[in-house]
Please model this.
Amino acid sequence: MDRTWTCIVCVSQVLLVLSHAENGLTARPTLKYALDWNSPRTLSSSSPLPARQTSRLQLLCSIQQGLQVNTSTASNQQPGDVYWSRDGKRLTSSSTSARLRWSLAELTPATHEQQRQAPWTFSLTLNAVTSSDGGRYACHVSGQRAWLQLQVLPVLDSVSLRHVVVVGHRVNIPCTASGHPEPLVNWRKVDKHSEHHQFETVEGYSSVNLTISSIIPSDAGTYVCSATNTAGSDVNELSLIVKRQGLKQGTQESISMLVKENVRGGRLIPIQKGEALVRTPGTSFDLDCHLEPGRDPEVEVSWWVNARRFRNKSRAKIIGWLPGNLYQDHQIRFHNFSHHDGGVYTCITSVGNVTATIAVEPVISQLTRHREVNSGEAALLQCKAGGYPRPKVFWTHLASGTRIASKILNLTRVEAKDGGEYECTAHNTHGQAKGKTMLTVSAPALAFLESVHESRRMVKQGSAAHFSCAVKDHPNMPATWYFSSPANKKQLGTDQVRLKSTDSQLIIESFDSADVGEYRCVVGPEGRQLRRSFDAQLVTDTAPDDTGSDQSLQCTPGKAPCSSGSALASSRTLLAFAAVTILAACL
Model:
């Protein structure tokens, strides 16, 4: 009985080893992401990836060695067993081409240096993320998959920063947000200086309204609309002003725009109609919306920039009405002015509107640093610039004088002549800015076309012996051959009758005892040379399979090319033999 249980345990262990061996030869794909042209990063599948709306997102799927991939399809088609899905639905080029924000990349081999880690990559690009893009993305490869959960940060639609309403009137102000998961939106009053206000906090998904049916003076104050989901939050503030009488009417001539050069003092300078106010980044100043005497001190004012409602930020804030007996001035104060702040500013009031343009000379905000790539690889140079009007950007290759109008210079297959210094120029009607970077193009490392797992060659007497030193991507690169034996050591040439040399091939037409020895080849230019040796032996009887002719490549784990199916069959054979041995010992 004990012997029977021992045998059962032995068989169980053998089956477990077989299972582990089979699973170990199947590698899962790995998934990385890159936001807004940043370097790819790895994210745990258990952690969601938060992304801002309008940001650029690229998902990169790396397929490790040992994973069977169907690459026999045409180059303009996706492999049948490699695809992307979102929320379980397969994504294809045909289904996403209508959505211009999407692109699916072909399955392409990685560089030679990366082959041991990830021979293939497959990418999915979202050029401008929206709330509808949230969900679970998965890369499927031969039944294996890697996935991540994309969440989109909430964004609130613009609301008025200041709302004036007369006592007894109705207020209904919507607050709407987008994001993924669907954000929770709420209105609340933050300065409850009076216990008699009528508003209570309200919340709901995606959109809620601030509604008061009949305004009373105690309803005045600051109200906050916020949107929150698991990715983040967004907040807007509104100042509600309650008046006891209607707004006074005025004429267009009663309002003007001025600028104060020094925020701590100085006079206000009128901005002439049609004149652009040119500002330098880093400066501080006030933009003033000026009303003539006699206007209603509670006149409603709103600021707009480039046709969108102005929102307070750390370097530019609305500071409201300034005290005074004769004039009313509503101002935006700029502290540490940025090239992002340029644009057309409009002050809209119940007595008229006034507009001023703040122009900014171009500033290069981001420039690709020195890049080094191998010949034949792709190179990407990026130049971002700010200013107002928006600057135009172009690249110049200083060595050739070639000029390309684009923020992104994409060189698909670089050559040695593409290397050198590149200059990025950004210009608008108020000036220009330049920046330089360097592109270094290096020749890729050479590699033999075929792997040789056994350098010893057995050649039958009188037969032809073939030796090959072909280089990958350069099969016709000529090789220099050397022969060494105990009685002879020389460099081989084509002057010998029985020798033929065709570029990387050496052929001995009738092999005999004088040809026994070591054959060595040297191929490639100085500094990038490759060397290989063959030990040729003579056999006079029936030769084994290892003859002097070119050998077929065998599957050796850890060396490419290697079929995971062949390795699996070998592993099963060995493990089956081990199982029989263990069972025999048990019995």
About this structure: The first strand starts at residue 30 and ends at 35. The chain has a mean pLDDT of 75. The CA atoms of residues 92 and 548 lie 50 Å apart.
